[in-house]
Amino acid sequence: MDTDVKVYFCDPQSPWQRGTNENTNGLLRQYFPKRTDLSVYSQADLNKVALRLNQRPRETLGFSNPGE
Question: Percentage of the chain surpassing pLDDT 90?
Fold first, then answer.
């Protein structure tokens, strides 16, 4: 389907072009260092981390959290 929406693909090996993605990766690494085997964590453990991250205030949201 043609939507006339411009699509931008980041260049490979250019993390500065993927700001939100790289920021999220950095936040996740506070809980799970690189190369961590996530299969050893239960879904409940992963949900706890997701909840903590979603309750963090965001400067871009006027220091509210995404749930607010």
Answer: 40
Residue appearing with tokens 């389907």: 1
Tell which residue, 62, 64, 44, 45, has the closest CA to residue 54: 64
d(CA 16, CA 20): 9
- Contacts of 54 by beta carbon, 8 Å cutoff, 6+ apart: 65, 66, 67
Q: Is 57 helix (H, G, I), strand (E, B) or coil?
A: coil
Structure tokens at 53: 């991250």
The pLDDT of residue 59 is above 90: no
Q: How many residues does the chain have?
A: 68
Domain ranges of the chain: 1-68
Q: Which two tokens stand for residue 29?
A: 């690494």
- First-to-final CA distance of the chain: 35
